[in-house]
Amino acid sequence: MRAQAKRLRHEEEEESAFISMTDMTVGFLFIMMILLAFFASQMQEPDAVSRSDYDRVIAERDSWQERAETRAEVIVRLEAEIEALKQQRSRLQTQVSDLNAALDAERATVTELTAELDMARTRIAELEEQIQMLLQQISKLEEDIENLRRQLAELQQIDPLEAYLAQVAQARREVLQRLRDAIRADFPNLQVELSEESDALRFQGEGLFASGRSDLTPDRREIVARLAQRLDEVLPCFTLGEASRFDQACNPGFVMIEAVQIEGHTDDVGTDRVNRNLSAARANSTFFAMTQAAPSVMQHQNLKRQPVLSVAAYGPDRPVASNESPEGRATNRRIDLRFIMVTPQDTDGIEVIREALESVGDQQ
Q1: What is the rounded CA–CA span in Å between residue 291 and residue 229?
Q2: Do 126 and 209 share a domain, yes or no?
């Protein structure tokens, strides 16, 4: 832009010089014409000049006139060119003004963009700092995750003893469910349920005994007889003795029953002595009815070669419902058939059970 302005000033100076020379030429011609007129006015007849001089003067006059006319044409042409140059200069000046305005706008834009760039750089620095902090946090979390994974892997490592005890609980639940479903199928009106711990079958006392009595009612002896028969079908796979019929298909976990307790329970009505004696008498009545119906049930033995079927009496000590209502007391007057499983203390105990069951299976 500066070069363009300098060039315009140079052109203006040349134009001024040209106009000055033109003016001087015209002035010079004008002076010559005045001089010629003056000389002509001073000429007198006696002072006439020769023809040759006259012709020469005329020729010079014509020459000067022709030159004046030529210069006039040149002046007109130059003035036209000067006007065209002025118009061009005006256009160029307009363009310069427009370009200066555009330049100012672009400079303002550059200033704004520079400010925005500075802000963006500041923001980028902040974001990079945040990213670095987050990466550190991610790294810490990855370390925590890895630690938790190691802990989880350690926890997921199967403890043989825990796995065996889980199989024991599962096998006991399945045996109880099998007995419950069989009794329900045979006696739909009898109230028999699994305990909350899935370790016992519960029979309401009113269903087997008359109120305050320990002997089984005649129409309920069949229930106990059928229970003994069903139990005699289940026990051979989980016990030792002559009646044992172990094979891995029916007992894949190699679990063993320690005891099947016939438990007598009462409500809290009456004295403690009476209730304990009543609960024991009910358990014994059930025991004798079962062994009479299925004598071979006593042949099933535990790891210590003891009969698994036994009795226990708890009186009112273990209620399963509130004794404040008739329904709750009726629920507490019950017989429980509880399964107690052999639970080894270590893996050596598991191996002892496995060998004992396998030895029985080999004898078949």
Answers
A1: 9
A2: no
